[in-house]
Model the fold of this input.
Amino acid sequence: MNTDELARLLATGADGIDPRAPVRRWALAVGAGVIAAAVLMVTWLGVRSSLVQDLGTPMFWVKFAFVAWLAVGGWVAALRLARPGARLARVPGALAAPVLVMWLLAAIALVGADADRRGELLLGQTWSACPLNIAVLSLPIFAAALWAMKGFAPTRLRWAGAAAGLFAGAAGAVVYAFHCPELAAPFLGVWYVFGMLIPTALGALIGPRVLRW
Amino acid sequence: MSASEDRLKGFLVRALAGDAAAYHRFLVELGAHLRSFLRRRLARLPDEVEDLVQETLLAVHNQRHTFDAAQPLTAWVHAIARYKLVDFLRRRGRGDLLTEPLDDELDVLSTADADAAEARRDLSKLLDTLPERQRMPIVCVKVQGLSVAEAARLTGMSESAVKVAVHRGLKALAAKIRGAP
Done:
């Protein structure tokens, strides 16, 4: 087949493209994934009984802003990496900033605390369960994000998979925050970050295989 | 940005709004640019260039919904062409064949080579290997130029089923190229 014939074949009867379709696909994926994660959290772990009291604690909102910021940033990164040739520009910096701020808060808390309380600030009550819980809650969001991305054409597959994983991990952490009682910055800076990095690493690992087109 | 960036982008934007004539001009001109882009990168495999031009055009068509009019067309086309090039070299299993020209950062769209040639791989033969349910709608709509309504009457499918079959058929065609080198 001559290339001009192919051009004619592709152009013949070609419809316009609905510019809202990509937005719908992402909205569907994110909505379904987060709802599934929330149902999983409520039935498996349960909402924390002290949640209403915690709403008055500034650190609860710092924690919430921390994970929500990362979720939004991860989503923006995933949106960009889903399209060929789109630039990340300032997204990596925007993703690093909340982590650095949390580490700064953690350092201040650790320096200001008595030596025998530092271990408690770092490990809390739930350090051994936290990362895995976040990773498990992120799974439905991770699957939905990969599905949404497969409707596009990522060309840097490892990065695209990692972005989908980071978005899922951070959104999973947002959901987990309604169960988790930990509010100390050192705990959040270590175990939340670790939990969010599990799906991120998984995404980088399977991206080249799953996202190929 | 080159003048052809603006020109081609204008064609594509109109094409995405449903202008098939603008889309045809876009694909023909893009094919010429891709030929020159890929020839410089596949200097040691000149016979493969036209196959890869067609493969990339098919990819551009199948992924045209991922184009964001706020982004430069060059970067989008560049990324797709590179992706197809790397995929092709991986299929051949010989990465050393890639020729990276020194003018790598120049626009894809700055040069063109309008001599559309026959590819070695015959896409129309590959089209024949598609399942009937996908092949027939493509032949009606894309080859014979019938309207979707006429194709629907002829095949006994609904109009939306014809559209879906054309869309899936072209995706399957692209997948067949990847699967069978």
